[in-house]
Design a protein that fits this description.
The protein is an alpha+beta fold. It is built from 18 helices and 11 strands. This is Cytochrome P450.
Length: 477
């Protein structure tokens, strides 16, 4: 049987399974909650509850009643591998956090600062070498290349050379992200079918000779080999506890009763997790920060003056935490352009969902809590939460960094990455934005049509369908 026929067979089997289960399903308990009508009996027919209510959001994200759904499990395990921290639960999740968190402690992140600054200077030099000043260019690629280099230099102590334009890891990682980020009618249907495909069949589909699957397998093989290479290097040069690296903390000690670390086969899983999370989310967020600065020349100039003042006072030893406008711009960009616009959870049992504000149902009655049945899929709408006027004020849709500088703290708290890696990502953004604004003036080209678009994360797309952020760049006089 040819590869095409095998793929067609399994695809048809998945569709049949999904349709059969949909026809057998009963009416959802959320059927009286207002929402858009389904445009198709296939696409969008499954009942999903979209939640941005602050009380309900907190309950869902912190309650053991809700867990990642079967589709998320299959997708994450196929991309990262089994045992990844995104899906780890309870004891194993605590075990992984105990391994990883020390690498991203405040002290260790501060020790990474010289490496981050070095990549920042390489990024500025790369723009000069490519002849960016005086032209309009897509800045997203170099932002992702810089983010990848930062992962390599500061976390893995391994050069990826993304900013040279010659990095094989950068090329294959971009190919993977573009593959998994593509959205089409067939891909939407496959996503809907994932929960109903038996695991053994799903594992077989990952061996099919399909270009997208080949790309993913190449990436898995490359990162597994990278993990083995890094582990060999660490074993030959094991450092003291004080100077241990991220990889050395992952390595399981030789003693048979050792509980620290992970097995060698799992090191590649965590290498992929850090690489993809670090490059994709940080690269995209950096791109959005530059876009908003190009859109707001007054804020850009004020930030440039803050950078110049900090440099005059401290030279190369800038205290980035003491730059209020820089941090306000980063926070406001993260609020408006959440790297993860929504996250899915599934109820493990029946429960009552609390609400901070009443909802009017389609029958006209008001409810202050909502019954949720076991198996109900829920989307926590992070982007919607970040634009609630009840939390952020009547100008919640506007880019206004000053909301983070006012005497009264914001009612809202931005939902975003947690602890550990986030400390490092924040420092990346502080340093790279500072270096760029110090050196270049950013502006939007005439007829700018850039819009946020949800893929694997939130990406930029122009009116002609190209995934890019065109920005005009000039040198600071």
């Amino acid at each position: 049987m040819s590869g095409r026929l095998v793929a067609a067979f399994f695809f048809a089997l998945a569709v049949v399974s999904w349709v059969a289960l949909r026809r057998a399903s009963r009416k959802s308990c959320i059927s009286q909650i207002p929402g858009p009508k389904s445009p198709s009996w296939i696409y969008g027919k499954e009942s999903r509850l979209m939640v941005s209510d602050p009380l309900a959001t907190k309950f869902i994200l912190n309650s053991p009643i809700f867990a990642h759904g079967a589709a998320q499990h299959k997708a994450a395990n196929s991309m990262f591998g089994h045992g990844n921290i995104f899906l780890a639960q309870e004891d194993y999740h605590r075990h992984l956090r105990n391994i990883m968190n020390p690498s991203f402690s405040s002290q260790n992140v501060r020790r990474m600062l010289p490496m981050v600054k070095d990549v920042g200077m390489k990024l500025v030099d790369r723009w000069e070498t490519l002849g960016y000043p005086g032209t309009t260019v897509d800045i997203t690629q170099t932002m992702h290349e810089a983010a990848l280099d930062l992962m390599g230099e500061a976390i893995f102590e391994h050069p990826f050379n993304g900013l040279t334009g010659q990095s094989e890891m950068a090329k294959i990682q971009r190919a993977v992200l573009e593959t998994v980020s593509s959205v089409s009618k067939p891909s939407q249907l496959v996503d809907a079918c994932l929960p109903y495909i038996p695991d053994f069949i799903f594992r077989l589909t990952l061996q099919l000779p399909i270009p997208a699957i080949r790309t993913l397998q190449q990436y898995i093989n490359a990162t597994d080999e990278l993990g083995r290479q890094l582990a060999r290097q660490e074993r030959s040069n094991m450092s003291s506890e004080k100077d241990r690296t991220f990889i050395s903390r992952l390595i399981k000690p030789d003693s048979p009763d050792a509980t620290a670390g992970v097995i060698d086969e799992a090191i590649g899983v965590h290498v992929r997790t850090i690489l993809l999370a670090g490059e994709d989310t940080t690269g995209n967020t950096l791109s959005w920060i530059l876009y908003r600065l190009a859109m707001a020349p007054d804020f850009q100039q004020a930030l440039r003056e803050e950078v110049q003042l900090a440099t005059a006072n401290s030279g190369d030893n800038i205290d980035y935490e003491n730059m209020p406008l820089l941090n306000a711009i980063i926070n406001e960009t993260l609020r408006l352009y959440s790297s993860l616009p929504f996250t899915e959870r599934v109820a493990k049992r029946d429960c009552i969902l609390p609400l901070s504000q009443p909802i009017t149902t389609t029958t006209g009655s008001q409810i202050t809590e909502m019954p949720i049945e076991k198996g109900q899929a829920i989307y926590v709408a992070i982007s919607s939460y970040h634009r609630l006027t009840s939390l952020w004020g009547p100008d919640a849709d506007e880019f206004r960094p000053s909301r983070w500088l006012e005497g009264q703290p914001c009612k809202g708290t931005a939902l975003g990455p947690h602890a550990s890696l986030w400390r490092f990502a924040l420092m990346e953004m502080q340093v790279l934005v500072t270096e760029i604004v110090r050196k270049f003036i950013l502006s939007l080209p005439a007829g700018d049509s850039t819009k946020p678009c949800y893929r694997l994360s939130l990406v930029a797309k122009t009116a002609d369908g190209v995934q890019e952020i065109p920005i005009h760049i000039e040198n600071v006089a």
